[in-house]
Amino acid sequence: MTTVAAYAAPAAKAPLERTTIERREVGAHDVLIDVKYSGICHSDIHQAREGWGEAIFPMVPGHEIAGVVTEVGPAVSRFAVGDRVGVGCMVDSCRECESCRAGQEQYCTGGGMVGTYNALDKNGEPTYGGYAEKIVVDENYVVGIPEGLGLDEAAPLLCAGITLYSPLKHWNAGPGKKVAILGMGGLGHMGVKIAHALGAEVTVLSQSLRKKDDGLKLGADHYYATSDPRTFEELAGTFDLIVSTVSVPLDLAAYLALLKSDGALVNVGAPEEPISLNLFSLISGRKTLAGSAIGGIAETQEMLDFCAEHGFGAEIELIRADQINEAYERVLASDVRYRFVIDTSTI
């Protein structure tokens, strides 16, 4: 076991504080990663505050991890010391179920994927995330970060990037398709960049117009305020695909009305409260209401290569570790453009 410094929530809703944790020894298929940067995802806050249900404490959040390999196990074949790598939302799965065999480990049905934090590994030990100096991960759940991406701007791609890339690819966003990104935050800004790079006509639907200039700069063709009732009149029946990144309950019927026939509203944001729906909103127009998680390991690598090829990472604000609690409050206040990233050298 190796002792490393980390920032952890000691209990639900408690401020994160500096502590130490134990990392396992490097096994045959493991890589030891010197964490350089760790993004702050809204889901870190949901889990640290038990918004999604009972959690495991102490909790070291962080599943947007970018770093450098410093040691490899004797059976490792995919990585070498010095490689630039990333770790996202999962560090293991059953590897045997239909989903895992199809490269969709995020939908593992053989016990579920093992989360990078707030989960139990196959030995029954809690997993600890990227708000730490180092992490040990099986090579099969590690991806390479292309040289064209800075590690700091690449870190949020391990969750925010793949969470948008996967549904945009699955629902065929591209030339000739009208795509709306609902919410202009850490997830949404990546949706704008990716949908634009895929060749779709991109519209941002945001509560207000205060981020309009940013949205247009990042690749949006249009930008509308959802607080204006005229938006829903003007855009009725417009979109092939809407990807919702918001984590608060919505009037789903209002947004389903913005779809063309056979259009899809895909949720990647996860509100803590249940949402009701009149099914006639779906029946009229043969519309689809769907959800999407992250992508599998192969698709995550594809996404990183795609972002590097198109010359973009996340828009970030770099912070020190002692600013994490302040950053959490700013995320809740939508006061970040567009992803906080922890410089883990400050832990």
Can you give a write-up of this model?
Pfam families: ADH_N, ADH_zinc_N. It comes from Streptomyces cadmiisoli. Its EC number is 1.1.1.2. Keywords: Metal-binding, Oxidoreductase, Zinc. This protein is an alpha/beta fold. The radius of gyration is 20 Å and the shape is globular. The two termini are 19 Å apart. 48% of the residues are buried.
Describe the structure in brief:
This protein has 347 residues and is an alpha/beta fold.
Layout of strands and helices, then pairs:
Blueprint: E1 2-8, E2 17-23, E3 30-39, H1 42-48, E4 65-72, E5 84-87, E6 90-92, H2 98-101, E7 114-115, E8 134-138, E9 143-144, H3 151-154, H4 160-170, E10 178-182, H5 188-198, E11 201-206, H6 212-218, E12 222-225, H7 229-234, E13 239-244, H8 252-256, E14 259-267, H9 280-283, E15 288-291, H10 297-310, E16 316-319, H11 324-332, E17 339-343
Helix pairs in contact: 4-5, 4-10
